[in-house]
Amino acid sequence: MNFKKNIFSITSKKEFEDLTLKIFNFQIKNNKIYRNYIQLLKVDPFQIKKISEIPFLPISFFKTHCICCCSSSQKKRNPEMIFTSTGTTGIKSRHYISDLLIYINSIYKGFEYFYGAIETFKFLALFPPVFFRRRNRNDSSLIYMMKYLIQKTYKNGSHFISYKDRISLKGDIKKNIFIFGLSFSLLDFIEKNKNPIIDENRKNNIIIMETGGMKGKRKEIIREELHHVLKKGFCVENIHSEYGMTELLSQAYAKKNGRFRCPPWMKVYIRDTEDPLIHIRKNNKIGGIDIIDLSNYLSCPFISTDDLGKKINEEEFEILGRMDFSDIRGCNLMTF
Largest CB tally within 10 Å, which of 209, 216, 229, 334? Predict the structure, then answer.
């Protein structure tokens, strides 16, 4: 079955469920680590007939194992790329990418699902110097995504910027400007640009997106406080957010109020903090975040993360922080 094609053409809940079960069977046959994990849980994979019965692999396995599928045709195939987490403590996660085109499709189709044609934007990637210097490296999935978006739209003037750069977002009314940045880099930027950064008549043409992450550079604050400061500094009505991580090839986006939505091939579940094998069905109940990301079918699409969150409704969820004793890592969220 052509998973690469079918994943990005999902249009219904039934299509998602049917394809998820097929990919689960593919994982059982080809992912030794995941298969052994299920056996240790004493779960019979051949008895699993519903998504709700699928076990999720703890995300920590990406730190200690090579999580990948190795069918007979792939045993000698080296990964096209290895993404490494940017954690500030502990062992870093490594995501072995067997087919980079899948990630590219996820970036492209995921972004356009929420925001429309990439070619209509001018992208400014705002990162601190250490990330800015890493833009020519290939071990950061976030930097790779930024490079891809910039390369697709370089004719629009897209480029990397540092928080030290003094730029003006005034004028140039015809272009839609999309600014990505780590939380503390966005804060640094508005502090260095004391004058109003955006004209009143440009508010509808500019999107500010925080990818989270104070990285120990600033005191951690809740997302509501961060967004309040950023809205005032950039003179915009809403701050957008991106939720992604090294271990996943897809991203969820929030256009306002920190309410995230997933693309059709990705789904979030809330697990009971006392029994990790049980998912909470009621909305607004806090628990651990479990994720199905079908674009991960060559590594593992069933991931149990160290993040806390809650479902607002069937389509929306919030990220509330990190679980106790988990690493402060990545660029994907705030930590309480």
Answer: 334
Please state, in angstroms and rounded to a whole number, the distance separating the CA atoms of residues 253 and 211: 10
Q: How far apart are CA 336 and CA 333, in angstroms?
A: 10
| Contact in structure between 50 and 10 (CB atoms under 8 Å) | no
CATH of the domain at 250: 3.40.50.12780
- Number of independent structural domains in the chain: 1
Burial of 49 (0-12, 13-18, 19+ CB in 10 A): exposed
In this structure, are residues 28 and 45 in contact, taking their beta carbons and an 8 Å threshold?
yes
Could you give the maximum distance between any two Cα atoms of the chain, in Å?
A: 63
Domain that holds residue 293: 1-336
Q: CA neighbours within 13 Å on the CB side: how many for 259? A: 10
User: Which tokens hold the place of 281?
Assistant: 């069905």
Per run of 10 residues, the mean pLDDT along the chain (length 336 residues) is: 92 97 97 96 94 96 93 64 79 94 97 95 83 63 93 92 64 76 87 64 79 67 88 90 96 95 98 91 95 98 96 95 61 36
> Residue 133 has what pLDDT?
58
Q: Is the pTM value of this prediction over 0.85?
A: yes
User: Within a 10 A sphere around the Cβ of 64, how many other Cβ atoms?
Assistant: 12
Decide: 308 and 189 in contact? Cβ < 8 Å: no
The count of other CB atoms within 10 Å of the CB of residue 274 is 7
